[in-house]
Known about the structure:
Largest sheet: 4 strands, antiparallel
Shape: globular
Radius of gyration: 28 Å
Distance between the termini: 48 Å
Number of helices: 2
Structural class: mainly beta
Amino acid sequence: CGGGGMFCPAVSPLNxxxxxxxxxxxxxxxxxDGGKSWTMLNFRQxxxxxxxxxxxxxxxPAIIWDDGNPGKLMISNxxxxxxxxxxxxxxxxxxxxxxxxxxxxxxxxxxxxxxxSTDGLNFSKVFSDNIIAxxxxxxxxxxxxxxxxxxxxxxxxxxxxxxxxxxLDTTLDIIDISLSDNTVFVLQANGLLRSKDKxxxxxxxxxxxxxxxxxxxxxxxxxxxxxxxxxxxGKYQSTALLSTDGGDTFNPVFFCNNSWGDxxxxxxxxxxxxxxxxxxGPAIGFCISRTNPGIAMWTDYGRTLATFDTxxxxxxxxxxxxxxxxxxxxxxxxxxxxxxxxSWDIFIPRDNNKFIQAAYTDIGGTVSTDGGETWRSAYGHxxxxxxxxxxxxxxxxxDRNLLFGSFSGKxxxxxxxxxNYWSSxxxxxxxxxxxxxxxxxxxxxxxLPDKPVTCTVIDYTSPASDRxxxxxxxxxxxxxxxxxxxxxxRCSNGLDCGDGTSTNDGSNTHIIQVEVHPSGVVFALKxxxxxxxxxxxxxxxxxxxxxxGDTWECISSNVAGCDPNPSIDLNGEHSWADPVSFTxxxxxxxxxxxxxQNCNNGKVQGGLYETTDGGTNWTRILQTYCAFRLTNSRYxxxxxxxxxxxxxxxxxxxxxxxxNDTTFPFANVTRITEDPLDSNLLWVNTFGGGVWKxxxxxEVESVESNKExxxxxxxxxxxxxxxxxxxSPLNSIIEIYDMSGRLVRKLESSHNVRQSVGDIDSxxxxxxxxxxxxxxxxxxxxxx
Length: 784
């Protein structure tokens, strides 16, 4: 973990082992064993949401609703393994209900008001003001809003009436609402109010000042259990408060560290031990089990934690201790699958693929000595503390057995937005290691500035005794060492970086990557430079030097499709607005690929570009939002792997055609690396989904043969009005179920079934195709 916030935890009321967590970096995670292990759901099915937690059918454990970005109401009929779209939500949702005594009655609230469905399919607007939370007991529905703070419906959400709340602090918003039987709880940052008589009278039962642990954030109630969480800002650490007597008394039950006399009750986990317990911050997501309210889940900026014993102890669900002895800093850990890290590079020695050094955002780096099965934090092994936030790349000098690392106190520079403002600054530098990165020595003298370094490369045309090394110093330019890294000089003549000083209307100083071709030609890439008003000119691009960096020339001033915008590009720039990486053809210095990203200056420039004439002409050979990095296969002729915003994209004909690897579940991939000892093993870095390894199909298998394995159950038309056609890639037994789980059809099939459904009721129906190779599933909507 680390690197992303975890939101919207959920526990099934019918199966406490079924859990979900969503990440702001895009992933949705599912556990079927009470959080011991997690599986990331494929982003092609559903994306992460920070707005809504999954909502469970009250009687059928297989049916779940969720909000899948961008703003779609999703449904699953197989406990969350696969998902389909039901409805496009008309705004930002904040709350959703499936009534316990009427599972087809669904309410969705947000900045658009409240929409209601009585069939789980069609929605109509019943209220207009902004809604942030719902609570219900099967008959009554309570809502918390903005202009109308507390609302009550006694007709299952068809109409809502304002409820006057005495003792409400009118200077503060309501932030949450909860209901247990007939008792309603209304939460503000400074207090909790309770009504036992349907809002006729109220009592403030809890004040944040009584505990001095920060403002309140969540309230969850069931039976006599009432949970309230706090945020940062108090004298003491943030916590969860618990009442087991319906709100009469509360006690803090979550203690992360021993500050101010607290006795920790959180089992040690690596973020707390290697960094500190406050690293993850307070809860940004919180839930309890409806059928066992002694079970609670807490999510924050890096961790998912849970208690299964009413707050007496808390367990980490995002990591597993994998070492001997006591839990401690520097120990080895095992991933549970719930990994929301961002990673940029990986180093594997050419003679030992069990050793892995991985470069990360926020947590710096990790080391594994067993092929990634277990790992430990690389924190505190010589990298200066102000540099350690992010490691961007590794470069190994094979002649001197010396590893170089590029370090930065500024995170998410490649492809990032806030990081690339002209006024952004940061610390950073270059470190060296003689033991493959187990320990580092910073280069803190010799002239190299203390600024973020995003790339360090070696010029192998120089002798080992006087090794020439280049570093891209973000916000400054290109720097060079002619003596193996001891002394450095700025070599940015012609790069249009000025003197390295960042100003709003000055030169773009954002050099992000430098590479040396085997012939000795040096290339440097400049990424976007955001000025005041968020203006991004077409002054990114690729530069070349044929004299070891003494002088440079731009070779991207004629990029097709990157025409100047007269209101922004006053000098007629004709390059990319936001290039993010480039790749060289090791056999031809004139053959280069550049990956670019769309940006907010009105130019759709994202994709992969290629030149075969040294930059005289450029062609976009693949369009996507972001082509993050291209990797040419060292094992297979004409094979290329593209890390992109659409996951892994592969070409087997040198980029003429491309196919998506639909099995890889995460969208934003930053780098793909072939294992140095195994031609079928790939290592994949992602922006928010951790580091992965996996085997690939052998080269002899064609793209056409791969497509057969990617086929899914096809159902059309959808919605259906009379006839529905169900196509399965294999001979199947077709089963159709309604939302109550009742089997309404069972059909033998070869590959294709065309079935009349005119005798069934309108609604959502689930389809299972049982084949010899497994079960495919889907759903269709029937409108009578």
